[in-house]
Write a structure and sequence with these properties.
Elements: E1 20-22, H1 28-39, E2 50-58, E3 64-73, E4 81-91, E5 96-105, E6 115-124, E7 127-137, E8 142-151, E9 169-170, E10 186-193, H2 206-221, E11 225-234, E12 239-244, H3 249-261, H4 269-272, H5 277-290, E13 298-304, E14 326-331, H6 343-350, E15 354-358, H7 361-381, E16 395-396
Parallel strand pairs: 10-11, 10-13, 13-14, 14-15, 15-16
Antiparallel strand pairs: 1-5, 2-3, 3-6, 4-5, 4-7, 6-9, 7-8, 11-12
């Protein structure tokens, strides 16, 4: 199990990801960005970096998502650094879209061979796009790259709509929900694990955030939930980072800001000393929902695989013969490299709940159907669903 080294504060090799801005069309910042990208690295000292473009994929919120990850060796820097990233995304038939990102490295990592990581992304409609990308540090050194991406729906994805118009580009943001109307609405509590997609990463990038929020938005836009509370938490920091009793467009933006403010690359000594603190946090959040004066019709965990494979102690959960149904929407992107049941899955199964491993939109659609069926079954019985051991514990496969 991965654990940070013991210290008063642990600094890990990462570049905190600042807000990524889509520049307004026709304005001075966009014109300046266009000029800088056209100039490129001509006459500039090169900055060593490796850029990995991401192939577009239809995410859980039915938006094609693409982006990049750039890696820089920390040996190139003798002190703290500021970086500026500019990139342009242009379809074959549409106008160019310009993005700007300003980043600051507050402390150089001490590990030998440490690398700094910069990540970003965008939503695109179906079509072919060219990307021009440039990173410049405060010493004027430049790294640049160009690539092409093609967004297409394939296989079962053709049965699903794409919510970004063809040939257009949008920032990685969710500002509203296109809610599903149902004759049998339910109240649910969502517990969102604010963590990177890769279990060994300690940087919650905008790209990671967009995958988390896409799952949340995709679940809510296709589900019969009339009211939803959302709690975001960090197992690495062992704390709750956001809570709202009712998710709206406004609170969705507040959730995004809370994840922006979460610095996973610093961990206090008091947190490291609590060996089972992540289990205690999960139990605290779960028990609070169960003990609420008006408990939810279901509790739903959302998140990627955690680095914690600990057995979840049954005694940490409040004893109840009639727990609400529990579900775990597990973002299963690295199961081949980390093929173990994590603490959230173990809690879910301890509560006799269902685990849905998802890594493509159709799997989330099927999970929503299963969740609605379970809630409808409970609704028809007129009482909270009583679980029998082994009945509700299964993994939904592709």
């Amino acid at each position: 199990m991965l654990r940070p080294k013991l210290a008063a504060v642990v600094f890990l090799a990462a570049v905190p990801l600042a807000g990524q801005d889509l520049l307004a069309p026709g304005g001075l910042p966009e014109r300046q960005a266009a000029e800088r990208l056209e100039e490129g690295a001509r006459g500039k000292e090169p900055l060593g970096c490796t850029v990995e473009p991401f192939k577009p994929f239809l995410n859980f919120a039915l938006r094609h998502q693409s982006g990049y990850r750039a890696s820089l060796s920390a040996r190139q820097f003798a002190r703290s650094q500021a970086f500026r990233v500019l990139f342009r995304v242009r379809s074959e038939s549409g106008r160019p879209y310009y993005f700007r990102q300003v980043l600051t490295l507050r402390s150089l990592p001490l590990q030998r061979g440490a690398e700094l990581t910069v990540a970003g992304g965008y939503f695109i409609g179906e079509g072919v796009y060219s990307v021009d990308w440039l990173l410049e540090d405060n010493a004027g050194r430049v790294c640049e790259k160009q690539w092409k991406v093609t967004a297409r729906r394939r296989g079962d994805e053709r049965k699903l709509p794409s919510l970004i118009p063809n040939g257009t580009v949008a920032p990685l943001q969710f500002t509203s929900l296109q809610r599903h109307v149902s004759e049998k609405p339910y109240r649910v509590a969502i517990l969102l694990h604010a963590a990177p997609m890769h279990p060994r990463s300690t940087t919650l990038t905008r790209y990671d955030q967009s995958l988390l929020l896409a799952t949340l938005v995709g679940l809510l836009e296709r589900s019969p939930f009339v009211e939803t509370s959302v709690t975001a938490f960090s197992l690495l920091q062992q704390k709750e980072v956001f809570r709202t009793p009712r998710l709206t467009g406004s609170t969705l933006r507040q959730l995004r800001q809370a994840m922006d403010d979460l610095e996973l690359n610093t961990v206090d000594l008091s947190v490291l000393q609590r060996k089972d603190g992540h289990l205690e946090l999960l139990a605290e959040l779960f028990n609070r929902e169960v003990a609420a004066s008006n408990p939810p019709d279901a509790i739903i965990f959302i998140g990627p695989n955690t680095p914690y494979p600990d057995r979840f102690p049954k005694e940490l959960l409040d004893a109840s013969e009639a727990l609400p149904p529990v579900f775990y929407i597990h973002q299963d992107f690295y199961s081949r490299r980390f093929p173990f049941a994590d603490s959230i899955e173990r809690l879910t199964k301890t509560a006799r709940g269902r685990v849905f491993s998802v890594y493509e939109p159709m799997q989330l659609v099927k999970a929503v159907v299963r969740i609605e069926q379970a809630l409808a079954s409970q609704d028809a019985s007129g009482a909270r669903l009583k679980h029998a051991p082994g009945v509700l514990s299964f993994r939904n496969q592709k």
